[in-house]
């Protein structure tokens, strides 16, 4: 199974082995967060009724039932060159290249306009532990054009320059930790990681040194020694509105907000509810028209009910639930990935029905939907201008963005 399926045990496996019933996941499917702010139309039977009871989850509205796949522009099947299954993927800054990391630790890239391989596949350095590629981000353009930072489940972080074929600098190894989430600050000065141990580390991009460790708690009654999240972290994002603020989410049913300038490394806000199992936390981009000063975060939880939400960090509530229920005759989809595009469209995908959807955040209408079936669980989604890249276990697909 792909990385991100919850497993609550002492087993230190790179790939999760959860295969039990929903009741064993360790969180409350009936959990309800306070809703206020945005108004999203949700059909009445999505909150109850015989069909919802039988499905143990929300039911899709008519817009999802009738939604068509966006125009497919490019498809790169998994294993076409002898390497593993894709786990994470990102466009470069101008959208001309798409890079993806696989479960064998190899990073590859292709030209979006032709589909041709970019000419190099980066294997893990021989002197570091081998792991699954779990997160990938590009640095801002300029001197660092086409440089991507890649993290693995073995706690290794490496920099690759895709067009020259060089691995840059020495690997960073987080001893006794698996890195499952990574993000780069908007100006590229720092990048942050999170994973198995529940903490967040901030690195200086130029030197590669860890400059800040964020792992403290703030809630009343919390033990002062509490180390960040109580379980693994899979979602991590710098806020566009404040270069030093990050939001993280993981298996412990919380979002935590961190300020890298806080000297004691304690989270500045804890919000309870989301159960994040993949790259499924994204800050509101500019130009959505939904908030005057940002502070909104898209979060997708690995569950059948209220899976996709917009959280208002300032108010401390989920300001909207976006419909993501099961379509008639189909399995439900539990999200691993979520990305918020300019124009107010949320792209969300995951496992179960193995599909992704484009949802209008303001109206809740599903504007596009594609189902992959088989072994095609969606692990990551990225957007670049008019393009949407969907990284699945069985390959990578590039679509025309929904308007």
What's the structural blueprint in terms of helices and strands?
Layout: H1 49-55, H2 62-66, E1 72-77, E2 86-91, E3 97-102, E4 107-111, E5 133-138, E6 147-152, E7 156-161, E8 166-173, E9 179-184, E10 190-195, E11 200-204, E12 210-214, E13 233-239, E14 242-250, E15 254-259, E16 269-272, E17 281-283, E18 296-300, E19 308-312, E20 317-322, E21 333-341, E22 345-352, E23 355-360, E24 366-371, E25 378-384, E26 387-392, E27 395-400
Antiparallel strand pairs: 1-27, 2-3, 3-4, 5-6, 6-7, 7-8, 9-10, 10-11, 11-12, 13-14, 14-15, 15-16, 17-18, 18-19, 19-20, 21-22, 22-23, 23-24, 25-26, 26-27
Structure description:
With 403 residues, the protein is an all-beta fold. It has a single domain, classed as 7 Propeller (Methylamine Dehydrogenase, Chain H). 3% of the residues lie in helices and 41% in strands. It contains two helices and 27 strands. Strands 1-27-26-25 form a four-stranded antiparallel beta sheet, with no helix packed on it. It has a four-stranded antiparallel beta sheet with strand order 5-6-7-8, with no helix packed on it. β3 and β4 form a beta hairpin. The longest helix has 7 residues. It starts with 48 loop residues before the first helix and ends with a strand. The N terminus is likely disordered.
Summarize the structure.
This protein has 403 residues and is an all-beta fold. It contains two helices and 27 strands. It has a four-stranded antiparallel beta sheet with strand order 1-27-26-25, with no helix packed on it.
């Amino acid at each position: 199974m792909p990385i991100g399926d919850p497993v609550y045990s002492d087993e230190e496996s790179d790939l999760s082995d959860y295969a039990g019933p929903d009741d064993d996941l360790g969180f409350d499917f009936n959990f309800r967060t306070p809703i206020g702010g945005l108004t999203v139309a949700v059909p009445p039977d999505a909150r109850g009724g015989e069909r919802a009871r039988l499905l143990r989850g929300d039911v899709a509205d008519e817009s999802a039932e009738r939604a068509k796949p966006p125009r497919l522009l490019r498809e790169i099947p998994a294993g076409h060159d002898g390497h593993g299954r894709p786990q994470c993927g990102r466009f470069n800054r101008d959208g001309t290249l798409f890079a993806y990391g696989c479960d064998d630790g190899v990073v590859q890239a292709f030209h979006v306009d032709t589909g041709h391989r970019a000419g190099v596949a980066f294997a893990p350095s021989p002197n570091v532990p081998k792991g699954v590629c779990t997160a990938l981000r590009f640095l801002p353009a300029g001197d660092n054009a086409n440089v991507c930072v890649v993290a693995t489940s073995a706690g290794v972080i490496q920099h690759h320059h895709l067009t020259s074929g060089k691995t840059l600098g020495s690997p960073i190894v987080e001893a006794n930790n698996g890195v499952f989430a990574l993000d780069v600050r908007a100006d590229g000065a720092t990048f942050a990681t999170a994973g198995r141990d529940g903490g967040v580390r901030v690195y200086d991009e130029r030197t590669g040194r860890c400059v800040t460790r964020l792992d403290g708690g703030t809630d009343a009654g919390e033990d002062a020694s509490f180390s960040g999240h109580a379980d693994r972290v899979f979602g991590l994002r710098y806020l566009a509105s404040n270069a030093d603020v990050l939001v993280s989410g993981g298996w412990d049913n919380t979002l935590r907000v961190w300020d890298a300038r806080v000297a004691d490394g304690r989270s500045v806000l804890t919000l309870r509810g989301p159960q994040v199992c993949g790259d499924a936390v994204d800050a509101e981009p500019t130009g959505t028209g939904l908030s005057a000063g940002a502070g909104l975060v898209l979060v997708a939880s690995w569950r059948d009910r209220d899976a996709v939400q917009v959280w208002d960090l300032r108010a401390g509530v989920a300001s909207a639930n976006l419909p993501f229920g099961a379509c008639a005759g189909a399995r439900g989809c539990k999200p691993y990935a979520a990305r918020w595009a300019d124009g107010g469209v949320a792209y969300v995908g995951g496992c179960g029905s193995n599909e992704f959807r484009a949802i209008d955040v303001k109206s809740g209408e599903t504007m596009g939907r594609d189902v992959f079936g088989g072994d095609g669980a969606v692990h990551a989604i990225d957007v670049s201008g008019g393009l949407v890249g969907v990284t699945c276990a069985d390959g990578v697909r590039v679509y025309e963005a929904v308007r």
